[in-house]
Amino acid sequence: MTDRKLLVVDDEEGIRIGLSRFFEREGFEVHGAEDSSQALKLIGAAEFAAAILVVRLKGGERGQDLVPALLKRNP
């Protein structure tokens, strides 16, 4: 069910896991990624109702750079 799928992208494992556990308790199906590469693979494989993106990832990547791919997959 797409309306309960959530993508969490954060390079800090503790934050990613904490957010995932919180939203899973609230009934969401959560998928986590630690970098843009992993996130793009998940975006290509599924549609998400919402995404929580960290502003700055390690290596100079930016979470907001994933927005076009998310919108293309599920406008």
Describe the structure.
- By secondary structure, this protein is α/β, with parallel strands linked by helices.
- It contains three helices and three strands; from the N terminus they run E-H-E-H-E-H.
- It has helices at residues 13-25, 36-45, 67-73, and strands at residues 5-9, 29-33, 50-53.
- The protein has a three-stranded parallel sheet with strand order 2-1-3, sandwiched between helices.
Major sheet attributes: 3 strands, parallel
Percent in strands: 15-25%
Which residues sit in consecutive blocks of at least 5 with pLDDT less than 50? Answer: none
Count of individual beta strands: 3
Q: Using only CA atoms, what is the Rg?
A: 11 Å
Element pattern in H and E: EHEHEH
Structural class: alpha/beta
The backbone outline, from C-alpha atoms, is flat
- Separation of termini? 16 Å
Provide the spatial order of strands within the biggest beta sheet.
Answer: 2-1-3
Residue share in helix: 40-55%
Q: Mean pLDDT, nearest integer? A: 90
Q: Provide a count of the helices.
A: 3
